[in-house]
Predict the structure.
Amino acid sequence: MSSIFAKLLFSTLCMLFLLKTHSLVFADQRLAIVYPVIQNFKSMITSDPLGVTKSWIGSDICNYKGFYCDNPPDNNSAIALASIDFNGFHLSASTLDGFIDKLPDIALFHANSNNFIGTITSQITKLPYLYELDLSNNRFSGPFPIAVLGMNTLTFLDIRFNFFSGGVPQQIFTQNLEILFINNNLLTQKLPENLASSSIFLLTLANNKFVGPIPRNLPKALSSLTEVVLLNNELTGCLPHEIGYFQEAVVFDVGNNQLTGPLPFSLSCLEKVEVVNLAGNMFYGIVPEIVCAGC
């Protein structure tokens, strides 16, 4: 009897929810589609210390805290949920599955500094407009989120300060990414060979477990990088003379690795550099005066 009662109760609640949704008036049908998705996600949130979700009521989704609307690329007269900014909300939920992947018009999804866990659903590959994805400073785990591979619209990916482990698929460096932050995870492998063929101009790999030498072709291929951040890994070998090609670098940080050998004179060619960290390695020999004097 209890099982039958539970089924009847569930059916009743579903009917009430549908009736409530039907009675709401939305500015656009696209907003009506995502309304139940948002409400379902709201029911999954286990902690909301700032009371953010209190504003997630009614049909005016564009005024929900953290939600932003705009005209979708395929229809300039329509109104759609275009971006989400949960940065600093400290929300807790066991998964983002069934939420982010059910927002068909989403272009930006930022969720820095929350307590989301689990893995990243492969269904996000179906999102046609997503170009910025920030999941940093959460508690995601598992392998590198391969769901982002093949997303040609994605130009910004930030998964730093999580617990992703294993290797980084080489395909990620041949996509259209311009900014890639994967520092402070548990990633372990040699620096990918095709890293030099990417179009990335902001890249951080620090605080992982990358091993092996710095590829000699890397500096010239990524000469537009403004920050070269490789600290706190397990890199070995010498600093290649080619690091002089990092002529746009403002930060050059290879501290706390297992690098060795003399410092190359080409360090002085980093004319724009403001921060250089070489500490915590096994370099030997004198520091060339030209390093301080510049080219």
In short: The longest strand covers residues 80-85. Residues 26-166 form a domain with the Leucine-rich repeat, LRR (right-handed beta-alpha superhelix) fold (CATH 3.80.10.10).
